[in-house]
Write a structure and sequence with these properties.
- The protein has 2 domains: about 150 residues, Lyase, Ornithine Decarboxylase, Chain A, domain 1; about 260 residues, TIM Barrel (Alpha-Beta Barrel), CATH 3.20.20.
- The protein is about 30% helix and about 25% strand.
- It contains 13 helices and 21 strands.
- The strands form 3 sheets. Strands 4, 14, 15, 16, 17, 18, 19, 20 and 21 form a 9-stranded mixed sheet that branches.
- Helix 8 links the parallel strand 11 and strand 12.
- The structure holds pyridoxal-5'-phosphate (PLP).
- Homodimer.
């Protein structure tokens, strides 16, 4: 569910008309809903009530400081993948003691910084990394808390670029080698073994791979608790969202119109699936949702600049490009596209490619999709763009990063102004 809907013929986020936002702040702009972020967090937190648990929002999905601040205020911990993300969490008022540090390539400065800030745990992805963390902690005269990430070799059945839990992926330590890795790690002097972690992939829309992984790895977690007195088991993130139909899935009625069987993954269904394997472990269970929290809480607003009727196709050229939202180009990601002005019964639908201004053939948001025939000068919204949207934006083609705007009820706030070309050039001019 989410807070984007048509009202009086115009797309709104909560009580705010997105036509006005686009006119006032220009495009392309990301718009996020406070209510949706809050609801998503609270729903998952409540679904896991039966467990001693913690929600650690995966910062990389959307790392705007105002988003992190909102989640910190709700009690969220944070899963980070760089020293920079830890700096963001701290700047937003988050607690380092509720941070886990994932990622396969942590550097010495990042490890030192995280140890000094007192993070909850490093989730190490190789034995070489564990050895290095031990060495860095020793140099500082401190003890570093460490968990290992196990690769359970479970097929998440998601896009190959966002699947992480198979043996052929670069993530984690093989299931077959993990116990020996813990044994060796337990002998190191400057680390303490605090937990076990896994994360099988992103955008999972079926609960079965989660169940399969929990069932397979829970006995290992129990054994590691007995042997090394670990205190947590992190089951990772990956809960998927509804990209299609995105707008319709905002309402409770849409969800209720589906039978339990046919309904996409919900936090309740996820929790009901995994809790039986986790509840008797006597361990704190951590979850690391990113996309689930932020994905459907954001849209990208863009203006249609030109229409081009080619021999084979109609192209609608918009002012957002793959540098602003790369998911379609990177992982064949689907974003539902809706005009801000609500289509009526007489609005024609035509097949079109919605493309950006970037000099790349991959710079499209959809191809051959039947959409309401919007005109030049009209605004449209790319839905479900709150996660892995702005955070992956770049300055390719010397385009400034979009503005980010946070809605809360009837109020709106620019939480990151549009980047200017002067901003982009400054460091180079200074070094010319
Ligand atoms: C990316 C990532 C997540 C979040 O994944 P989502 O699919 O956005 O929930 C959680 N844990 C780790 C270790 C990750 O790398």
């Amino acid at each position: 569910m989410h807070s984007f809907h048509y009202l009086n013929g115009s797309l709104h986020c909560e009580d705010v008309n997105l036509q006005q936002i686009a006119e006032e702040h220009g495009t392309p702009s990301y718009v996020y809903s406070t209510a949706t972020l809050r609801d998503n967090y609270t729903r998952l937190d409540q679904a896991l009530e039966g467990l001693d648990h913690g929600v650690e929002y995966a910062v990389k999905a959307n790392s705007n400081l105002s988003v992190l601040k909102l989640l910190a205020e709700l009690g969220s911990g944070f899963d980070i993948v760089s020293g920079g993300e830890l700096q963001r969490v701290i700047a937003a008022g988050g607690d380092p003691a509720k941070c886990t540090f994932a990622g396969v390539g942590k550097t010495r400065p990042e490890i030192e910084y995280a140890i000094r800030q007192g993070i909850y745990c490093f989730n190490a992805e190789s034995e070489a990394e564990v050895t290095f963390i031990d060495q860095v902690a020793g140099d500082l005269g401190l003890i570093a808390p460490v968990a290992l990430r196990v690769n359970p070799n479970v097929d998440a059945k998601t896009h190959k670029y966002i699947s992480t839990g198979k043996s052929e992926n670069k993530f984690g330590v093989d299931f077959e080698s993990i116990e020996a890795a813990y044994e060796r790690a337990s002998k190191l002097e400057n680390i303490t073994l605090r937990g076990l972690q896994m994360h099988i992939g992103s955008q999972l829309t079926d609960v079965k791979p989660f169940i399969e992984a929990a069932e397979k790895v829970a006995p290992l977690a129990a054994k590691l608790k007995e042997l090394y007195d670990i205190e947590f088991f992190s089951v990772g993130g990956g809960v998927g969202i509804v990209y299609s139909p995105a707008l319709a899935s905002g309402t409770a009625e849409w969800w209720e119109s589906h039978t339990e069987e046919a309904r996409p993954l919900t936090p309740e269904k996820y929790a009901a699936g995994v809790i039986p394997f986790l509840k008797d472990l006597g361990l704190k269970i951590l979850v690391e949702p990113g996309r689930y929290i932020a994905g459907n809480a954001g849209v990208l607003l863009t203006e249609c600049l030109y229409e081009k009727k080619g021999a084979a196709k109609t192209f609608k050229i918009v002012d957002a490009g793959m540098n602003d939202l790369i998911r379609p180009a990177l992982y064949e990601g689907h974003h539902e596209i809706v005009p801000i002005k609500e289509p009526t019964k007489v609005t024609a639908h035509i097949p079109m490619d919605v493309v950006g201004p970037i000099c790349e053939t991959g710079d499209f948001f959809c191809q051959n999709r039947d959409l309401p025939d919007f005109a030049e000068g009209e605004y449209i919204a790319l839905l479900s763009a709150g996660a892995y949207g702005f955070v992956m934006a770049s300055n390719y083609n010397t385009r400034g990063l979009p503005a980010e705007i946070l809605i809360d009820g009837a109020s709106s706030k620019v939480i990151r102004p549009r980047q200017t070309v002067e901003d982009i050039l400054a460091a180079e001019i200074a070094n010319l």
